[in-house]
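[step 3/7] fold_predict: job queued, chain A
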Amino acid sequence: MPSLTSHPIRRSAAPQPAAPLHGLHDTSHPGAQRQHALADAGLGSSEWLGESHRGRGLRPRERALRRGPDRVLIVGANPLGRTLARALLRQAHPRVQLAGFLDDRRIPRAEDPTQSLEAPLLGTTQRLGECVRARHIDRVYFALPMSAQPRIRALLEQLGDTTASVFFVPDIRLAEPLRVRLETVAGLPVVGVCDTPFRGARAVYKRIFDMTVAVPALLVAAPLMLAIAAAIRLKMPGPILFRQRRYGLDGAPIEVWKFRTMRVQEDGAVVRQATRCDDRVTPLGAFLRRTSLDELPQLFNVLRGEMSVIGPRPHAVAHNEHYRRLIRGYMVRHKVRPGITGWAQVNGARGETDTLEKMERRVAYDMEYLAHWSPAMDVRILWRTAVQTLRGDDNAY
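[step 4/7] structure written:
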């Protein structure tokens, strides 16, 4: 690996806690795959997308008598509007019926113009008010770019004499969002697209989970850890613990502890990754690495609040500085505390990353963990880690 030089990490101020937000789910886009489906748009928590626009008339009573599904109209037959349409159709919710699109282009922009639209093109936006009244539309979704603000204002005027609910669909797909959430700044709504999943109650749960696992694990493993420490002292000159600088939550530097398994203690601008049959690894160290027992001291890092039991594995500072220039979004994995084990490790993405593709695969698993975290996922990772440790892992060396 080339010479690597460390650079300071700029820490950003953490946003205020906010309620979870549902986003679009489009399997054709990597970032959008990380989002919850917007198929229940307008039902429950998805109301964040816009504000209700109430007008005059007897439509609410008519709607109550009709007792049919809410008819949805999408303004904009562009990729964003079509993504929303596909999400609605996938849900097939009995309370939602897609009536069609309005668009000012004769041939709407789309990913593939040769493909037919998901719903009929009912006309241009100039007919918005007329279409809403004639077709008894209950919800109107604006899937237009932000640059169309004056145009949207004019369209809202057409809806002033209807009781249709109005929603704005922000195009956040380019940001490859992790977890979309709505916050307010001085009363103004803002959409967060890259933030930690651990806010509020989630953060409290995560910490309780870490302590519930780490404290009993330390008590049970204490005799074993003392035996390992004694064996290292007898077999290898030098310290028992290997301490290395790594990046923690928000890129803050932390010192990670491990049982020493090598004859060297590298923690500089150049850190060589461990390889299979590495001559720096001692016979005792090879056993500890193969069984992952060298990671046990990191339970103290968990107690100190520097690490979690489950999370993206921390890399040496030198490796972070190298890969952050090569892999887009690499540092996003530091939006959570690093873990003793993680989603990447239980899926086989551990060991030496002698190619860029291997590190990209590992980071992709880390991003998937951040996007889809749940308490059940942590339990599942912990269980799979225990099974792999007992069976042995060919990539642990």
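[step 5/7] annotate
The chain is about 35% helix and 15% strand.
The chain has a mean pLDDT of 79.
exit 0
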